């Protein structure tokens, strides 16, 4: 664990990303304390510019709502959707890919054909269709993003398991009389966790972008404030009130950038070959 932390700390970009993400997480957790006012409440005249003496540091939107309140409460939505959809995608993709890679044969063929079917459809288009069918809500958005996100996970896990299933420690486990289930989930999968962890961090970033895109198109939950909704609501006044799109856009940019930097740092820390080079 100490070696992992040292390798991770060598990547300055990853540390910066971790700091940014921690700030976003703290803001999301303590959103009701930081901004007790509802993000839907009209507090001033519309189009109040940011950094004025009105007591509203980020100004107001087209309906006179506090932009800072929307930004703070929107952080919670983005993180929840990103984390939960990634977790659901992992719960689907990891077991499917592991079983396909370990047993091979018709099981592998069937699993990969299903995976290829989902991958032939553009993920964003499929997410739009799924949300439209299920009606826009936080649950439907999270489920739709999870459904379009699991195929790459299944393929990655399948490849890792196929590379590990003929290793010496697997043969030793078989000679010890362990069942296939215990060998797969107790010995092979733990040794394949490094690329899965790295991919999961990048999937959270992709999920946040997908949620923002869906909300921008008006397919978000109409009762919940999100960064994508803020940008979408302000797109018609981007010339006269540029800050309404710019501020939540920067929030999305920084969060996604932070997750990508963390993913790069995790890859450096968990990759055995890079770890040996660093010694």
Automatic annotation (TrEMBL):
The UniProt entry, under SUPFAM superfamilies, shows:
MetI-like
Keyword Transmembrane included in the entry's annotation: yes
Provide the transmembrane region boundaries.
12-34, 79-103, 124-150, 196-220, 241-262
Pfam families hit by this protein: BPD_transp_1, OppC_N
**Signal sequence interval, chain numbering:** none
Any idea where this protein resides? Cell membrane
Which UniProt keywords are present, listed alphabetically? Answer: Cell membrane, Membrane, Peptide transport, Protein transport, Transmembrane, Transmembrane helix, Transport
Question: Per the annotation, which location comes first and is thus the protein's main one?
Answer: membrane
- ABC transmembrane type-1 domain residues are 75-263
Concerning CDD domains, the annotation shows: TM_PBP2 (cd06261)
Classify the protein's membrane topology as the record does. Answer: Multi-pass membrane protein
The text of the family note is: Belongs to the binding-protein-dependent transport system permease family.
Q: Which PANTHER family match?
A: D,D-DIPEPTIDE TRANSPORT SYSTEM PERMEASE PROTEIN DDPC-RELATED, OLIGOPEPTIDE TRANSPORT SYSTEM PERMEASE PROTEIN APPC
Protein name, as recorded: ABC transporter permease
Q: Which organism is it from?
A: Acidimangrovimonas pyrenivorans
């Amino acid at each position: 664990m100490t070696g992992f932390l040292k390798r991770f700390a060598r990547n300055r970009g990853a540390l910066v990303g971790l700091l940014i993400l921690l700030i976003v997480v703290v803001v999301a957790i303590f959103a009701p304390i930081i901004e007790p006012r509802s993000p839907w409440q009209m507090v001033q005249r519309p189009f109040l510019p940011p950094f004025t003496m009105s007591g509203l540091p980020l100004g107001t939107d087209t309906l006179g709502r506090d932009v800072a309140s929307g930004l703070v409460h929107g952080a919670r939505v983005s993180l929840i959707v990103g984390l939960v959809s990634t977790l659901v995608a992992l719960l689907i993709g990891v077991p499917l890919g592991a079983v396909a890679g370990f047993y091979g044969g018709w099981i592998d063929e069937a699993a990969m054909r299903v995976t290829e079917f989902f991958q032939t459809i553009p993920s964003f288009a499929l997410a739009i269709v799924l949300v439209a069918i299920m009606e826009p809500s936080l649950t439907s958005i999270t489920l739709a993003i999870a459904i379009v996100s699991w195929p790459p996970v299944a393929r990655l896990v399948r490849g890792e398991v196929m590379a590990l299933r003929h290793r010496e420690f697997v043969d030793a486990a078989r000679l010890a009389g362990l069942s296939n289930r215990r060998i797969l989930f107790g010995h092979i999968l733990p040794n394949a966790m490094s690329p899965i962890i790295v991919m999961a961090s990048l999937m959270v970033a992709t999920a946040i972008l997908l949620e923002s895109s869906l909300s921008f198109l008006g397919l978000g939950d109409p009762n919940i404030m999100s960064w994508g909704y803020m940008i979408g609501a302000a797109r018609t006044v981007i010339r006269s009130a540029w800050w309404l799109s710019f501020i939540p856009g920067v929030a999305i940019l920084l969060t996604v950038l932070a997750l990508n930097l963390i993913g790069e740092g995790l890859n450096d820390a968990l990759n055995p070959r890079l770890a040996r080079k660093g010694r």
